[in-house]
Amino acid sequence: MNKAAIGDSAHSLSLQAPGPYMPGMIYLPRAVRPFALLLPLALVAPSATAQVPAPVAAPESLQTGDEVPWIYRGSDVPRDEEWLFGEMDNGLRYAVRENGVPPRQVSIRIRIDAGSLHERDDERGFAHLMEHLSFRESKYLGPAMAIPTWQRLGATFGSDTNAETSPTHTVYKLDLPNATPQALEESFKLLSGMMREPVLNEANLAAEVPIVLAEKRERGGAAERVVEVTRKTLFAGQPLAERMPIGTEATLTGATAEAVQGFHDRWYRPENTVIVAAGDVDPIRLAQLVEKWFGDWQGKGPHVEAPSFGDPVPPPGAQGDNPVGETAVQVEPDMPRSLTYAFMRPWRQVNDTIVYNEGLLTDALAQALINRRLEARARAGGSYLYAQVQQDDVSRSTDATFVTVAPLSGDWQAALKDVRAVIADALSTPPSEEEIAREVAEFDVVFASTVEQRSVMAGSKLADDIVSAVDIRETVAAPETVLNVFRGMRDKLTPDAVLEHTRSLFAGDVVRAVYVTPATGEADAQALKAALREDVAPDASARLDATPISFADLPAIGEPGDVVNAEPLGLLGIERVELGNGVTAILWANDAEPGRIAVRVRFGAGMRAFDQGDAVYRELGERALVQSGLGELGQEELDRISTGRKMALDFEIEESVFTFSAQTRKADLDDQLYLFAAKLAMPRWDENPVLRAKAAARLAYESLATSPGAVLSRDLEYYLRDRDPLYATPDLAMLEKATPAGFREVWEPLLKQGPIEVAIFGEFDREATLETLRRTFGALPPRTPIPADVAARTPDFPAPSADTVVLHHRGDANQAAAVVAWPTGGGVDRLPESRQLEILANLFSNRLIDAMRERAGASYAPQVSNSWPIDLADGGRIAAIAQLRPEDVPAFFAAADEIATDLVANPPTEDELARVTEPLRQLINRASTGNTFWMYQLEGSTRDPRRVQHVRSLLNDYTVTTPQAMQALARKYLAARAGFRLAVIPEGQELVRGPAAAPVQAPAGR
C-alpha cells in the first residue's frame, strides 16, 4: 500500500510544537447542489458543456477480469476496484478512474521515470530543465503558449497546471476544470506533444535557462546551504549526495539543444511513463484518450536502464554496534540550532504484501509512541524545543530513520542526550498495553474517517496517490483495505512486537549526523561524533499516563441557555440561530460530505484588540493560548481526552476577529463544542506553553534576516501598515521581557470580549446540536463589549512618497526582493468591487510574469495579490512582489509602473480578460462544492445580513466584467497616487536607483 495511506495518523488535537513534519490536510468535497441555483439565471454565464459522446469500447490494453494489474504484481493486497489499469504494447502504463470530486474536473498526471538521479555529471539540472522546456514549446503549442492555452480552458497556472521534478521522477500535472469532451481531447493532445515532441532548440534554451537560474537563485541562501550540507553528509557516497533537481549554474548555462535532446531521447520513452487520470468522466473514455494520443509512441534509440542509486556505506572505523560515520557541523549565524542524525539502511524494492504492510503499520505505531514521549519531555521544560522521529524511504536510495532535534541553547549535548535517553528507554523496555491502545485508537480514527469520507476524496489527491505509489514501487489500497488490515492485526500489536520493530528502526549500516548552529566554535564534527557514540541511560520519565479521561467527568460550562430565535438565513437550507446570551450561530446540516463537520467560532476584535505595547503577546498568543489549557486540562490531558477522537483546537488571530476552528465528525461534535466554549469560559494559564512559545519565537526570529523572503515575512506588514508597532515582529529584547503573567494579563480580558458567532456545517443532527449549543455556548456569561475606539480602528497605509524603503538581509549577494503596493479599501458595502479588483490583480499578475520571468528571467515567480478586509471600513491593497537580483530591482519597479500606466490608459483585450475570468469561474465552481466555502462566505452574516445578499452575486462579481470596467478600476486605484515601494537588498549594497515613484497618470477627461 502507498505509505501515505498509513503515515498521516497525527494526534487528535493539534497541540504539538511546530516541527518539520506537521503536514496539513485540505479537502475539496462534492457539490451539495449546483452553484448556479443560487444566482439569477440571467446573470450566470452560459455553460460550455457539450453533448456527451456515445460510449466507446474498452481498449484491449485494460487489465480486467483475472488479469493482475501492473501495479499489483507480486502483491496480495486487494485491488482497489474503482481504478482501471492498462499496459500498452509500447510499455506505457496507465490508471484511470471515475471521480466526481469536484464535479466536471479531470485530474491528469504524467509521470516520467527520470529525475536528477538519472542525470550524468554534465547533465545536472537537465531533468528539471526538461520540465520547463516541455512547457515552453512543443508539437501542438507555440512558444510560451502553454499557460495562456490552459488559462482559456479555465486552468489556473501554478495550481491547476504545474509540474515537479524530484531525484527519481518528473511529474506533469493538470487539473482540468469543466472537462468537456472537447477540452479533454485537446488537453490529451497538447500533453502528448509536450511529452513526445518538445521543441528543444537554442532559442528555447536561451529563454528558459534564465528562468531556471532565477528559480535556483531564489532558493539560495543559508537555508539552502544547510540543505546542501545535510544532503552531502547523510547520503555520502551515493549519487543523491550530489544530485539536486535544480542542478548547477555551470551545467545549466552550458546546456546545448543537442545535449538536452539526448537526455530527452534517453528517458522520455513510453516504457518509462505512467499516465493517471481521475475525474468526472467515464474511465473507459479516459483510457481511450490515453491510447489514442500515446499508443503509437515509440522511444528513440535503445532502451537504457536506470543507473544505480547506490547504498549507504559506512566509512572505515564506523563498524560495530554504534556505527557512527560521517558527521558535519554547519555554522550559519542567522539560522536556529538544529541537529539531525539518521540510521541508514539500504533501500530494496519489496513485494507489497499484507504482511509487509502490517510491518509498516507496526513501525508507524512505534514511532508515534516515541514522538509522543519526546513531545511530553519537551513540554515539561526539556533542553529542546521539539524532537521527532521519522522513518522514510528516501529517493529509492536509503531506508532511514531520522531523528530531528531543536536545542534550546548552545548546550546541544544536553539536548541530544535527553532525546537519545528517551529513545534508549523505548529500545530497552516494551511499551505498556495502555500506551499501545492509545496509539491504536489514534490510528483507527484516522483510517475509519478516511473510509467515511471516501466518496468525497478529490480526484487530484487520488491521482497523486497513484504517482507516489509508482515512485516507491508499491501498490495502492482502498480505504477499507487499510482499515481492515489495521484492525485485523490488532492482536499482533503486543508490547514485545512493538519493541522488536522499535529496535529495527534504530539499527543501520551507518549513523550520520549534521548539526547547524549560529555560533562559531560551539561544536565540530568530531565532538558530534563522540556525542553520538556515548552510552546513554534510558529515561523512562517521559512515559505517559495513558488512562483515558472522559468528557462526562468535566464541569459544566454554566447554566444552559435558551434558543430564542431560529430562522432561515435566506440561502439554501442554512439557518440563523440566536441564543439567550447573545451568541449567534449559523447551522447547515447536510450529508454532502459524509463523516465531516466544519466548525468555526469567531469572537473578539482580532488585531484591533491589542495596544501598541502588546505586539509580543499577540505573537505568543497563536503559539501558546490553546496550549495553556482549559479548566483542569493541561496540554497532556487535552491529548488524552481526545484520544481516538477527530477533534482539533486551532486558533488564529485575524485582522478583525479571533477564530477557533476544527474539522470534526458527528460522534465528536458535542465534545468539540465543549472544548471551544470551555476555552472561553474557564481558560487555564499554564506557564510552560508560554515559555516554550518564547523559545520558539526567539529561535524563529534569529533566522529572519537570512534572505529577502525572510525579511519580508518579518517586516512587510509593519511597513505596509505605516510602521504601526502592533504589526512589528517582536525582537529579542521584547521577547525577553515577556512573561507568563503578562501573557495572562493581556489575553484574559480578550477572551471575554466581543460577540460570538458559531458556524457548524456538515453531517450532524440539528436538534441534538441545538441542545449542545444551549449547554456550551449558550451557558457562557454575558460578553464584554468591544470598546468603541477599538471597533473603529482600521490599518493605516503609508503616506505617498517618491522614496523607496530599503531593508537589508544577510543572505546571498545575488538575492533581493521588491514590493510595490497601492491602497484600496474595505468593508461589506463595496464587496462586489473588491471581487472585480481580484480580476484586475490577476491581469496585472499575468503581465508581470511576462515582463519579469518570460522576457528577462529576472524573477521566477512574481505575483500580484488583492486583499480587502470585509470586517473593516478600510485597509485593503493591491500589492506586487518579486524575488530577483539586486540589479533588477529598478526593472521590477519600472515594469510595475509601466503595467499600471497601461491598465489606466488602455483597457485590456477581451482575450486577456478571458484568460483571467475563466480560471476564476472554474475556481469558484470547484470551491463552492465544499461546506467550508459557504462557511467562509457567510461568516459574520448573523449580525450583518448584507453578506448573504453579496453571496448571491459572487460568481458574477468575479467573472462578469468588461475591459472598460477594468480600466475604470485601474484609474480609481492605480492612478490615484504613487505606489508604496519597498526593496530588500544584501547588506553592504546600495539600491540601484531607477526613476522616482510617481502617480500613474490617468488619461485626460477622467
Count of separate structural domains: 4
Structural class, please?
Answer: alpha+beta
From the spread of the alpha carbons, the general shape counts as: globular
| Discrete helix count | 31
Q: End-to-end span in angstroms?
A: 64 Å
Within CATH, the superfamily of the largest domain carries the name Metalloenzyme, LuxS/M16 peptidase-like
Q: What is Rg?
A: 29 Å
- The CATH architecture of the largest domain is 2-Layer Sandwich
Question: What is the strand and helix layout of this fold?
Answer:
Elements: E1 84-87, E2 93-98, E3 106-112, H1 126-136, H2 146-152, E4 161-165, E5 170-176, H3 181-196, H4 202-219, H5 222-234, H6 249-253, H7 257-267, E6 273-279, H8 283-294, E7 324-331, E8 338-345, H9 354-379, E9 384-394, E10 398-407, H10 412-428, H11 433-452, H12 459-471, H13 479-488, H14 495-505, E11 510-517, H15 525-533, E12 563-568, E13 575-579, E14 584-589, E15 597-603, H16 615-624, H17 635-641, E16 650-653, E17 658-664, H18 669-681, H19 687-701, H20 708-720, H21 732-737, H22 740-750, E18 756-762, H23 766-775, H24 788-791, E19 804-809, E20 816-823, H25 831-855, E21 863-867, E22 877-884, H26 889-905, H27 910-927, H28 931-938, H29 946-952, H30 954-959, H31 963-973, E23 980-986
Parallel strand pairs: 2-6, 7-11, 14-18, 19-23
Antiparallel strand pairs: 1-2, 3-5, 3-6, 4-5, 8-10, 8-11, 9-10, 12-13, 13-14, 15-17, 15-18, 16-17, 20-22, 20-23, 21-22
